[in-house]
Each structure stands twice: as structure tokens, then as C-alpha cells.
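User: quick one - fold this with coenzyme A bound?
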Amino acid sequence: MSSTKGLEGVVATQSAISSIIDDQLTYAGYRIDDLAENSSFEEVIYLLWNQKLPTESELKVLKTQLREEMALPEAVIAHLRSYDLSTVHPMAALRTAVSLLGLYDSEADEMSEDANKRKAVRLQARMATIVAAFSRIREGKDPVQPKDNLSFAANLLYMLNGEEPKGIEIEAINKALVLHADHELNASTFTARVCVATLSDMYSGVTAAISALKGPLHGGANERVMKMLTEIGEEENAVPYIQERLERKEKIMGMGHRVYRNGDPRAKHLKKMSKELTELTGQPKWYNMSVKIEEYIKKEKGLPANVDFYSASVYHSLGIDHDLFTPIFAVSRVSGWIAHILEQYANNRLIRPRAEYTGPQTQDYISIEKRS
Ligand code: COA
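Assistant: Sure. C-alpha cells for the protein plus coenzyme A:
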């Protein structure tokens, strides 16, 4: 038996949710470029969960359901308040709070298709509320209730900032949500599928997925991109900073991808938003610096920017705290996790691969007094 490190190139399942073929990403066959330019995040949620675009009335129903399910159980809010707010990372808070949500859902272990669809809406809606509520609570403010007349994207910003966002801000966050929603068998989605293939419940699957997304090689990269940009400080420092990191054989966050070789098709949309928003906020240096880094890494290492690279300056321009970048990624990606969880349940088989053994040959047990 021989193994493939990191399962690179291994086709581990069949899926009708999203595809990456020749560096093009589609959700249920719809090109990501079309969706980013035209669709609302709610439409994309519907698309991922049903593999078809919603009619107007189907979309209206989903929007209403999402808004109605946004409120958190009081016990979850109380729990968020009980964390050590000066040290707890919001991604850890989100992971723990989502696990806790399962304790307050009487249907958590109910595995019928209808119950799973109801839980899907609850999880999708409440992850946004948890991220916003945690952010407000640690600022010493009360959580903000969502508004009935706002879209999912607008409500997310409204619940974070307590002010209704401007048109361009809604456009940017909606685009970011659409672009991050699903990505074939990425690490966190695979984690979710492995978990629920044991017939564990949806809350467990999503909690496991959040845990995988948290790592710096996956969703945690966007926060680290902003940390890097902040350390660089000014445009002229960008290339020397990157040169030094590359000489030390360090990885540059937001660059490279396991699947894409010629470029991540999501990056250009966020690059455009980054340009517009950084100009609007009078801080074009974040965009200019990012372009310099992107060009340099491309020239030196042949690596393209991935989705996390320009999302950093977009979120920063929207006034979002840097440690909330990955939780916001999760608020979007949960739509894809849920789609994959439902697909796994619908045609389940336990996921249990093998390992190529590299330890010692079979040997006789040594009693403790004879061991050196
Ligand atoms: N910066 C510098 N070098 C990089 C790099 C980066 N971001 N990404 C890959 N490389 C280099 C590696 O050092 C390695 O070089 P070597 O062969 O000389 O040792 C080579 O490219 C292959 O890298 P590897 O880590 O094996 O590729 P992978 O397919 O396992 O990794 C990622 C894919 C995304 C994990 C990787 O590109 C990375 O760590 N990127 C930064 C984190 C990030 O942005 N993650 C978000 C992904 S959407």
C-alpha cells in the first residue's frame, strides 16, 4: 500500500455541488463569475442546497426563514458573555458556540430530511448572529437584532456595526459571501463529510468543519494576510519584506493553492472590490501594497493569489476587526458545508481510508523491568 501525501489528486467522493475544472469554479454548474456579479448570497445558499436557482417565491421563503431563525438562545448569549473576552479568539468562540447551539436544538439528533433542512436554516442564520454578537459583547455593547428589511449580507454588517451599511459595503460583503460559499472538497468540507458519514449530527459536522477552517493553511490565512500588510506598513517596504520571508523559507499567506495552478478565479473579484473600497476609505496603500506582493510572488515563485489575499483588505476597509475575518469566511462557507452534509446523508457510506504503515516491524512485548 502506498500513500499520497495530503491526499493530493485523490478523488474521494462524488458531488453535484461545486466543481473546479481547468481553474474554473462553478456552483451546480453556474460560473462563479456570473454568481459574483449577479446573485445575492441567499440565492447561492438556495442553489447549493437544491442545485437549482430559486424562483422569486422560493427565494422569498428562504430569506424570511433565515431572518426568523437568526435569534440565538439566551443561554448561548450568556455563554458568549462568560468567555475571557480579552483573550478568546472569535474563531474559537464560534466553534464552541456552534457546538453549544446543538444542545439547545431539540431536533439536533433528529435525522429526518425535513429536520435536517430546518437545522440547515438555523445554523446558517445563527452563525452570523454568533459572530456579530461576540464582536459586540467584547466591545462592551449589546448584540443588535437583525432588521426584517435587510438582506443577509446587509444584516451581517448591521449586526456587527449597529449602523445600516452603504450600498457599496453591502455589495462587497455580499460578493465575499458568494465567493467563499463552497469550494469542492476543501479541507473543512472534507472534515464535515468525514464527521457526518459516521451518521453524527449536523451540529457536530459543522463544529468539526469550523475547527478545520480555523487553521492558517485554510481559512485562517486571511487574518494573517492583514497582519502581514500591517507589519509592512508602507508600499515601499512590500518587496524587501517578502524577499526576506522567502529567504527564510516562510510561506506568504494568501498565496498559492492546492488545486489552482494559474490563479484562483475568485481573487479578481475581491481585488476589484479592494481597489474601490481602499480608495473610498482614503487608504489605497493596502491595495497598492497587495498588488506589489502579488506581482512579486508571481514572478519569483510562480504562485498566484488565492481568495484570502484580497479579502483581507476588503474586510479591513469595511471596518471589520482582523480576527473576525475567518469567522466571516465561516458564515459563508457553512452554506457549502451544509450542502455537502445533506449530500453525504443522502448517499452515505462511512469514510474510512487506510494508512501506509511506517513504524517498526512486528516485535515481541518487553516487560517493563527489562526495558532500557
Ligand atoms: N508562499 C511561499 N511558498 C509557497 C507558498 C506560499 N504561500 N505556497 C506554496 N509554496 C511553495 C512551498 O514552499 C513549496 O515549495 P518547495 O517545493 O520548494 O518546498 C511548494 O510551493 C509547494 O507547496 P505546498 O505547501 O506543498 O503546496 P500545497 O498544495 O500543499 O499547499 C497551500 C497549498 C494553500 C496550503 C499553500 O500554498 C499555502 O500554505 N499557502 C499559504 C496559506 C494560504 O493562503 N492558505 C489559503 C488557501 S485558500
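One thing worth noting: The mean pLDDT is 96.
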